[in-house]
Amino acid sequence: MWKTVLRRVLIMIPEIIILSILVFLLAKAMPGDPFTGSIGPHTSAAQIHHLKEAAGLYNPWYEQYWNWVVHLFHGNLGTSFQYQEPVTRIIGNRAINTLWLAVFAMVLTYAIGIPMGLYAGRNQNKIGDTIIRVYTFVTMSIPFFVILVLGLWIFGYVLGWFPTTGSVSATANSGMATTLSRLQHIVLPGLLAALFGTVNIVQYLRSEVIDAKGSDYVRTARSKGVPTGDVFRHHILRNSLLPIAAFAGYSITGLLGGSLYTEMVFSYPGMGLLFLNSISYRDYTVITALVLLYGILNLFGTLLSDIILSAVDPRVRIQ
Amino acid sequence: MSLIEVKDLEVHYPIRSGFWNRVTDEVLAVDGISLNIEAGETYGLVGESGSGKSTTGKSIVGLEKPTKGQIIYKGKDITKPSNRRELDYNQDVQMIFQDSLSSLNPRKRIEDIIAEPIRNFEHLDKNQEKLRVLQLLDIVGLDADALYKYPHQFSGGQRQRIGVARAVATNPKLIVADEPVSALDLSVQAQVLNFMKRIQRDFGISYLFISHDLGVVRHMCDNIAIMHRGRLVEIGTRDDIYNHPMHIYTKRLLSAIPETSVEGRAEARAHREAVEQEFQENQSRYYDKDGKVLPLVDVSATHKVALPEDEIEEEDK
Amino acid sequence: MADEENHFLKIEDVSTAFKIQGKYYPAVSDVSLDIHNDEIVAIVGESGCGKSTLATTIMGLHDPAETKIGGKIEFEDQDLLTLNEDQMNKIRGAKIGMIFQDPLSALNPLKRIGDQIQEGLDYHTKMTEAEKKARVLELVNQVGIPHPERVIRQFPHELSGGMRQRVVIAIAIACKPDLMIADEPTTALDVTIQAQILDLLKDIQKENHAGIILITHDLGVVAETADEVAVMYAGQVVEKGSAKQIFDNPLHPYTRSLLRSMPQKDSENDDLYVIEGSVPSLQKMPQDGCKFAPRIPWVPASEHEAHPTMHEVEPGHRVRCTCYKNFKFQDEA
């Protein structure tokens, strides 16, 4: 199996190179340059030309690309126009916030979704399944931002159980208090995101379980005299979780990518909100860095999914 | 002159393996076969799964690109696409598949399914086209109300007949039928086979009948080729193959067909086991050291067998 | 032998109806059959005749919410149809083993061959882990799979079709059941492999003194293997008898039609016999009278019985309906 994994990793190298070239050219094509923010109305054209020449902006693109890559490896992604701070530092802070929220939401999503999907599939058309189906149907048919706004209004404003903005309270200063405050801030958005995220898992898992129940190998197991509960545990469970497990790899993109809706509605300073703000302020250095990051995350997500799949499905190991 | 001549046909598939996924070996799906199909005859190609019989059929229709060899039609090699176009080969050679459900587009009505090849090759106006489709449906014994139905509304046998109608639509010279009845029940199989024979009589079509069912092949085919491991082990008339089989593999296949007589049961099994034992013991004589089938040798004007040399001498005596 | 009397299956007036859009339609109706051990009983018929449904009814594999089952299935002094799921689980795999048609889908793709064979032993025996391992190897050997040590660690997709079918047989015989039900065990296989598998089944049956119910559409397979034959049409047994009786003296018009539609040695210049019309779907099945009557429309209604029953023609040979008596094909004067 390690051979498959290693080959998969090697394939990623050219993928990442191509991705970085594309992102670099994209950044070049965008209006403005590193001096856009610092050039005043009195700077002369000659001076600008001089500055640009010194920064290597008239060099051929591949030389500029190479410089960019070298900077990249030193953790230098440029400076944000909007914040006048190194992009790495901005992204670092936001990434931690997003990670807190996303891990919490993801754990919750799977912890709720998997048992619900399994239960619904196992007890197809019984009362429990009907309730779960109504829940998924209703949740599906309401737009996500409506759920968020409603949750925010009910639990944040009307009941006042949870804070409604930010990622940590400004008054928390000790380590323990900060952690508690952080948790307090992610419970509501995390819960609402999970509520919405479970729907897909529940529906998918339910139909997988129902398919597995009708499969020939389950019939074989039953004809061996395996009790229903054990048929479920030994045959249906693993086989129906397979696609979910494989899909879990892609979720890491979401872990750092952040959620636009959740972060916007809760004014939660994470990656999603950062991306949105950078676009509206045309903060190109940040946008470039984020696009590159998202691209790499996606590649790693597929890699992780492939590895998970080859670990759990013997049919994939042989190629 | 034969309708179609297959000369030294080879189809190889690469096997990729190792860390860099390079081509390390080849599957010799078809490994040098030659056969002639005469106009108006049914030529049987028999073999077990993996013998290369379907690949051979697909190469003749042009669905599979041969690695080597020629397929001569009207004096030209149709493995070259330009010759295929020039001769209207794709119109003259059609195919019937085993799985009638998956080979018919589920979202198209029967009218469109049967008219499709006509639209590709002929330019008829709406009314003429409809008349032609009705005529074709009539040939395979289906009513006009079939026109507006979809494939799933028919039984397996009816769908297979629709497949036959579609294949006949372009007035082909040759139809390659790949296991056309093996998915069908006995009584339905009889009906499809009858229609195939009737169409052959009425239109002078040739069939390449690919099957693993030796009972059906005996009923349908004038000349038969037995295929094993990508090569032919024996070619002959129906009489040659069924009454005077000479290759050990042919004998083994024939002994495995269940007979519908109850009395001969014990003898049949004894015979089968004797042949199987002979096959296991003498296999090496009929195959070269790489397990490849030996070259075919003429035994009579119609009968060719892949025999070892000592066996041929024995025959001569 | 008193022992032999104990080990047999008696199917009495069994009916299985499926619920389709709120209404029940019988897929099997009034089937009665006896199966002794040391005997292979073939159930023959075309697709949709109810032969597989009968098998899964014996095994109790139907969802009670979607099916209505009537009659009695006596096996070792109990009526299988009255047993609950737990009681059935003690019989399935232990006393009745089942072999399915498609060996690829019948095996769990994610489990090793050895584990799948061992599963039955886990539930029905008190063997130690080592004993079970040894038994699995013995079984793999018995069904003629080379390299047992390696194969038990492999997954289903790594084996050929013939080898997979042998694994499915090993699963069915793991606990030496008294009865084996084989549902089209060779349909997916090549003829030479088919012959080997059928011979293997016969050998196992002799060794274990088991009874076999062989479900197939292939008359050749029946003639070669069966002791007793039941021909099914539209959910009913229309003729039953010894294999010799059925093949040498077929009586029911359906049996005769089937045999006649087979390609024969010298049939190449003739059209094959085609049975008129087609098998009716479950919802359109005639509810009463001779179900084969629409397929032989030239036979006058007076020849049929109003409520066809089985008639014993000679010892052990029974035919449904009276229409067989004067039956002639249309081309026979």
From TrEMBL, chain A:
Superkingdom of source: Bacteria
Listed transmembrane segments: 9-27, 99-120, 132-155, 186-205, 241-264, 284-309
Membrane topology: Multi-pass membrane protein
GO biological process assignments: transmembrane transport
Alphabetical list of InterPro entries matching this protein: BPD_transp_1_N, MetI-like, MetI-like_sf
Location within or outside the cell: Cell membrane
GO cellular component, one term: plasma membrane
UniProt entry keywords in alphabetical sequence: Cell membrane, Membrane, Transmembrane, Transmembrane helix, Transport
Signal sequence bounds: none
PROSITE patterns tied to this protein: ABC_TM1 (PS50928)
Residue span, ABC transmembrane type-1 domain: 95-305
Family note: Belongs to the binding-protein-dependent transport system permease family.
The protein, known as: ABC transporter permease subunit
UniProt source species: Furfurilactobacillus rossiae
TrEMBL record, chain B:
GO MF entries: ATP binding; ATP hydrolysis activity
GO biological process, one term: protein transport
Gene3D superfamilies named among the record's database cross-references: P-loop containing nucleotide triphosphate hydrolases
Domain ABC transporter: 4-254
SMART domains recorded: AAA
SUPFAM superfamilies per the UniProt record, alphabetical: P-loop containing nucleoside triphosphate hydrolases
Classification via PROSITE patterns: ABC_TRANSPORTER_1 (PS00211), ABC_TRANSPORTER_2 (PS50893)
ATP-binding in keyword set: yes
TM annotation in the entry: none
InterPro entries per record: AAA+_ATPase, ABC_transp_ATP-bind, ABC_transporter-like_ATP-bd, ABC_transporter-like_CS, Oligopep_ABC_C, P-loop_NTPase
Family annotation (PANTHER family): ABC TRANSPORTER, ATP-BINDING PROTEIN, TRANSPORT ATP-BINDING PROTEIN
Protein name, entry field: ATP-binding cassette domain-containing protein
From TrEMBL, chain C:
Chief localisation class: membrane
ABC transporter domain sequence ranges: 9-259
Keyword vocabulary terms for this entry: ATP-binding, Cell membrane, Membrane, Nucleotide-binding, Transport
GO biological process: peptide transport
UniProt keyword Cell membrane present: yes
GO MF entries: ATP binding; ATP hydrolysis activity
UniProt-listed SMART domains: AAA
Membrane topology field: Peripheral membrane protein
Cellular component annotations (GO), alphabetically ordered: plasma membrane
Subcellular location: Cell membrane
Cross-referenced SUPFAM superfamilies: P-loop containing nucleoside triphosphate hydrolases (SSF52540)
Alphabetical list of InterPro entries matching this protein: AAA+_ATPase (IPR003593), ABC_Ni/Peptide_Import (IPR050388), ABC_transporter-like_ATP-bd (IPR003439), ABC_transporter-like_CS (IPR017871), Oligopep_ABC_C (IPR013563), P-loop_NTPase (IPR027417)
The UniProt record lists the keyword Lyase: no
A UniProt-annotated Pfam family: ABC_tran
Annotated transmembrane regions: none
Family: Belongs to the ABC transporter superfamily.
Protein name: ATP-binding cassette domain-containing protein
